[in-house]
Give the backbone structure.
Amino acid sequence: MVTVRVPAKVNVQLGVGGVRPDGYHDLANVFFAVALGDQVTATPGTGVTLSCDGPDAAAVPLDDSNLAARAARLLAARHGLAEPGVHLHIDKAIPVAGGMAGGSADGAAALLACDALWGLDTPLPVLLELAAELGSDVPFALLGGVALGRGRGELLEPLPVAGTFHWVFAVADGGLSTPAVFRECDRLREESGLGSSIDQVPTPDADPALLAALADGDPVALAAALANDLQAAAVSLRPSLADTLHAGTEAGALAALVSGSGPTCAFLAKDADAAAHIAAALRASGTCRTAHPTHGPVPGARVVHTSA
Ligand SMILES: C[C@](O)(CO)[C@H](O)COP(=O)(O)OP(=O)(O)OC[C@H]1O[C@@H](n2ccc(N)nc2=O)[C@H](O)[C@@H]1O
Ligand SMILES: Nc1ncnc2c1ncn2[C@@H]1O[C@H](COP(=O)(O)OP(=O)(O)OP(=O)(O)O)[C@@H](O)[C@H]1O
């Protein structure tokens, strides 16, 4: 049996370029791994089977479309294993379809758990390549910490960061579809007359002030630099997110932003006590389903337990 712990992410900067011919957008994507995470346990089995526990378990598909199952099959195929055998149990704490890369996290965790269970010793560069095949957010879940993602987000460069930052995540009722949010971003750009194609939108770049705030461990400077080009699109599709963002700011957050493609909202706090207070205020506000205080950065997917 092998258990892997894997973090969720928030994008502290999500710069979105124009639509590429393959339908993806080039990004300047600064990923930040937080302690809120899932656990994936791999045990020997016949075929690839799945189970899931947690408050959102009912929303998690248990068929071959699950990123954890796809990861197990992809790893097996890479090693020429004709009949992969594994049962994967997901302890799910990351909101589903919430913009925190929960499915991607489980895909990364399953790669690592199956690799250990099957004794494959796959080198990290190969795991990262398989991760990129599974989805744009999956490589970062293997790496963790803070990293700049270029291309569609899969080309990663670890970034220096000092200290610990405190966050609160407000979980919405129901998810948002990532492709639908990118499409809405394009639609809003077209509507404003800017255009949405790769030759109309400047290629985004990481903000030097944001990188300095991370390297200095300065939450006030980070708060001033947080930016998400998908936020307007997420709020356009789910206008009630404006109330959630407002409630967290009123409760003393240094800054509020939509996490990735949303609808989870992220709030930066000055310390752990402030985070606990903001989370309680958000829960009481009636503008979200629940709110979790947490911190980061934390490492990427890692084995936390192995037994025969
Ligand atoms: C919004 C983010 O979570 C920010 O980290 C990611 O960019 C999304 O990553 P993901 O969920 O792993 O996305 P993928 O599974 O690779 O792609 C899902 C869909 O999102 C859109 N997509 C995704 C990544 C990207 N750079 N440009 C896109 O336009 C495309 O419509 C794509 O078909
Ligand atoms: N292991 C998984 N956990 C949750 N959802 C999964 C999983 N595997 C596949 N899915 C499917 O993927 C959809 C998106 O789920 P996910 O939780 O990854 O979204 P997300 O956090 O918004 O993604 P991202 O932030 O990477 O764009 C779900 O609605 C579900 O149908």
Remarks:
- Residues 102-117 form the longest helix (16 residues).
- The domain at 2-159 is CATH 3.30.230.10 (Ribosomal Protein S5; domain 2).
